[in-house]
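Dear support,

We are seeing what looks like truncated structure output for some complexes. This example has two components. We would appreciate it if you could run it in full and send us the complete token output so we can diff it against ours.
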Amino acid sequence: MRYIQFIQPNGRSASVARLGGRFGSDGFQNEVSWLVGSARDQFPVDLYEDKENTYVRAELPGVTREGIAVEIIDGSLSIAATRTQKTGAGEETEKLSRLVSIPDEVQADKVTAAYENGILTVTLPRKEEIKPKKINVSVN
Amino acid sequence: MSFLNTLIPNLNGSRTEAAPERRPRHQIREDEAGYTLTVYLPGVTKEGLEITDENGDLTITGKGTAKLPEGLSVLHRESSDAAFRLVIAHDNTIDAEKIGAELKDGVLQLTLAKTESAKPRKVAVS
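Here is the complete output from our reference environment:
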């Protein structure tokens, strides 16, 4: 198994809204990886949202709970995990990681994660919108 | 099926063409006593899983992962809701009475013991 970590230089400006209709025939290498890191040999990731939160759901069957690392780096969510399997006498360790661009600003200190039935769900609370300020302009 | 899966059929290691069922990612290891079959089934619970052994075919079927709670909208989707089916033909070389199954953290592990006749035998030369 190859271990790829792909970090798009402009990852922080990635916006999910640009996903639709922009895949080319080589869509994998450009748009998809641009959005959610390199997809081949990695785990599937879903992105959902409701009014308050953005949710990242990653399929990570059989990984060690202690080995799951979730970090917010520069507006992206980094998920890393390891899977150890017994192979007869020895053990085989598989390293998995993925970088997901988060569409909105999140409250990085309030991010939570849960692992159940092989699925990691990361809840990212959105930053409260700054209320629009009204500026009075005096016209002479 | 998500748009992404039609674009990259092998994204989650299984065949996700137009078929309504998908074949989950799996591995088989063999030793002298039998086989260990590991099937990756993220999000699948014991209740959503059925394992049958009939006419030399071991079949693992089940429903896809649980539906989303209401009020959530999808921004990006790579996983599949499709039901899954995995058929392993073993030609009765395993003992159906001794199949062991364990589901943990989305990984199903089946231990399949070889029948006595399927085990390697040494033939003494007189």
